[in-house]
Amino acid sequence: MAIESLRELCTAMDTAAKATWQRIEFGRLPGRRFDEASVTDNLLFTLQSQVPGLLTYQSNQVKERDSGADWEWWIGDDQAGWICLRIQAKRVYEDNTYRMLKHPGAGEDTFQYDTLIKGCDPDQARYAFHVFYNGWPEGTFEEGTYWAPPARWNACPGLSSYRDCRHAEPRHYGCSIISSFAVKELSDSDIAGPAAARFRVQKYLSAAVPWSYAFGFPPWDPKREEERWHPRLDRGDWVDRVHGTLEVLSRRGGASGARDASGHLGNIPIDRDQRTFELPPYVEAMRSSTPGRFEPASEDEAPVAPQTVIVERKPKKRARKRN
């Protein structure tokens, strides 16, 4: 199976991000708590139920500690090649920090994000990202908004503020994405400092965007008014669009660079030969099995993360030949 519409996936991701915000906000009540695993399970189930053709798999025979990843995305098709994202998820805590960024890594790795980064190579179109689960009551940081000033607002390619932006709203940051290289740089820069300063929300949000933006930063167009995604988002080679966006988010300016490049993502230098054209055995086995829980038949089929999501592009229709 393959997905019909990239726009449909991005819209579903925005809806899921707002639901995550509500879930995390609710979790601040006494006696309520949602960990990253339960939020991730809910997110991926929601996406699969809303996006026809999206494949998600869960496996019990995976140790997250070995790869540092909570889940993987595999994006592309057999002709265009495949791009891999390994995701580490962290939730915000009641002290408005991502305190579990201090989680130790595997083996000799100091932190979990070191393990995640070590297992990825952008030169092979394998990217390491963090997704932060956010949620707090309106007015927590500034009256009349869910946003967290003075964090930088990167969601508007038209450079509007969080109050005026028509591309996103603060609760789209219920699931925010940031390169793990940026996370490491931000965390290690204050490694001896107190947790309240080292892991504070505003520090990381300033380098993050809504997670749907990983599949194509919405181009700025003053004529489309309230429309979330540009009508041309699904046209052309969207594998190139995703690849270009991830390159910018990872290595060519981060969140602010992606915003500035949103109108010309097709011109971002990418190397299609870096992509994977021979999928790992566990991904191939998943593609030929029923979506849902997946149990490996051998060690070769053991996934590297507890959850795997396959976003396969639907084959283009060939034009009929005229006699």
Note the topology.
Blueprint: H1 6-26, H2 36-50, E1 55-58, H3 64-67, E2 71-77, E3 81-91, H4 112-118, E4 126-133, E5 175-179, H5 180-188, H6 195-198, H7 201-205, E6 209-210, H8 238-251, H9 254-260, H10 281-287, E7 292-293, E8 307-312
Parallel strand pairs: 1-7, 2-8, 3-4
Antiparallel strand pairs: 1-8, 2-3, 4-5, 5-6
Helix pairs in contact: 1-2, 4-5, 8-9
Could you characterize what this model shows?
Residues 319-323 have low confidence and may be disordered. Helix 4 links the parallel strand 3 and strand 4 (126-133). The chain is 29% helix and 14% strand. It has an eight-stranded mixed β-sheet, sandwiched between helices. The longest helix has 21 residues, at 6-26. It has helices spanning 6-26, 36-50, 64-67, 112-118, 180-188, 195-198, 201-205, 238-251, 254-260, 281-287; strands at residues 55-58, 71-77, 81-91, 126-133, 175-179, 209-210, 292-293, 307-312. It is of the alpha/beta class. Helix 1 runs antiparallel to helix 2 (36-50), helix 4 runs antiparallel to helix 5 (180-188) and helix 8 (238-251) crosses helix 9.
